[in-house]
Amino acid sequence: MKVTVVGAGAVGASCAEYIAIKNFASEVVLLDIKEGYAEGKAMDLMQTASLNGFDTKITGSTSDYSKTAGSDIAVITSGIPRKPGMTREELIGINAGIVKSVASSLVEHSPNVILIVVSNPMDTMTYLTHKVTGLPKNRIIGMGGALDSARFKYRLAEALGAPISDVDGMVIGGHSDKGMVPLTRLATRNSVPVSEYISAERLQQVLEDTKVGGATLTKLLGTSAWYAPGAAVSGLVQAIACDQKKIFPCSVLLDGEYGLSDLCIGVPVVLGRTGIEKIVEINLSDAEKSHLTESAEGVKKTNALLDA
Ligand SMILES: NC(=O)C1=CN([C@@H]2O[C@H](COP(=O)(O)OP(=O)(O)OC[C@H]3O[C@@H](n4cnc5c(N)ncnc54)[C@H](O)[C@@H]3O)[C@@H](O)[C@H]2O)C=CC1
Ligand SMILES: O=C([O-])CC(=O)C(=O)O
């Protein structure tokens, strides 16, 4: 199993590290445009192999896509991150051009690749990747919901005073401060709805904190987060590589599912060896449906900027 990660910055390197530590891939290629940067990160990570006990071979490449040839999965993290006070949508001007050229180069060298898009604004970059590559829709996956759901579980556990392993929950919708739809109604602690343990007001606070999870970290760090994003991507890569058939909310091209079409937005999907094996349509309440529809309108507005 060969995995390429484009962008050896904060998220790309974290992603490569978690993939290696989980020890399921034979090879990870890190690629960046900064001269020597990916090679340096790869060497540094390889020097953790004996310490962390993994056999994955990590190599680096400065803009040489021939080194990525034959990749089974490629992750696109290249692009600029936001600074405090910015929205993800403001990154479109620079990141669209980067994602466009990176996606084309990846497919040129690995025609059977499954692409995981991370660069922001992620839902729009995932849609752009469809437009640029024309790959079948099962082979383009946007990563946002897996991260947002991890943050939701963190906030739920905090509110419940419970260990995170006790809670379950999912965030669908757009990967944006306003567009996320944390499904509080369906969140549970050991199968029991969390609403049985905490007040509606506290649950509303959990929802608000989850939606601004990325912005909160950006304010604290001066740039956006990387550990949880890297771990979330590694979870998707592992589910595909190991044919796990796990369900994650991912940004995928919809064609009528949830009453939506011609956009990529976060909904639950089954991930396995062929990428997106199934889009799962769960029963949403009227309020959840209208939040998802509103979120889709926001994503479509950002998509429209691609043509501007
Ligand atoms: N979807 C999600 O949940 C998340 C998305 N992100 C997004 O991921 C992206 C990367 O974030 P960071 O790693 O923190 O940024 P970073 O600045 O640390 O790393 C980005 C890397 O991309 C490289 N790069 C730029 N243009 C390139 C090109 N044409 N080809 C190859 N490499 C290129 C840069 O040299 C840099 O090393 C940002 O757009 C950020 O908003 C970040 C966290 C979560
Ligand atoms: O907040 C950002 O800009 C980066 C990101 O998407 C996240 O951490 O959720």
TrEMBL record:
EC number: 1.1.1.37
Enzyme class per UniProt: oxidoreductase
InterPro entries associated with the record: L-lactate/malate_DH, Lactate/malate_DH_C, Lactate/malate_DH_N, Lactate_DH/Glyco_Ohase_4_C, Malate_DH_type3, NAD(P)-bd_dom_sf
Domain Lactate/malate dehydrogenase N-terminal stretches: 1-142
Transmembrane annotation, as ranges: none
SUPFAM superfamilies: LDH C-terminal domain-like (SSF56327), NAD(P)-binding Rossmann-fold domains (SSF51735)
Ranges for domain Lactate/malate dehydrogenase C-terminal: 147-301
Active site: residue positions: 175
Signal sequence annotation: none
GO MF annotation, one: L-malate dehydrogenase (NAD+) activity
Keyword Cell membrane among UniProt keywords: no
Pfam families assigned to the protein according to its UniProt record, in alphabetical order: Ldh_1_C, Ldh_1_N
Binding site for NAD(+): 7-12, 32, 95, 118-120
This protein's UniProt keywords: NAD, Oxidoreductase, Tricarboxylic acid cycle
CDD domains reported in the protein's UniProt record: LDH-like_MDH
Binding-site residues for substrate, renumbered to this chain: 82, 88, 120, 151
Described purpose of this protein according to its UniProt entry: Catalyzes the reversible oxidation of malate to oxaloacetate.
Family, per entry: Belongs to the LDH/MDH superfamily. MDH type 3 family.
PANTHER family assigned to the protein according to its UniProt record, in alphabetical order: L-2-HYDROXYCARBOXYLATE DEHYDROGENASE (NAD(P)(+)) (PTHR43128), L-LACTATE DEHYDROGENASE (PTHR43128:SF16)
Name used for this protein in its record: Malate dehydrogenase
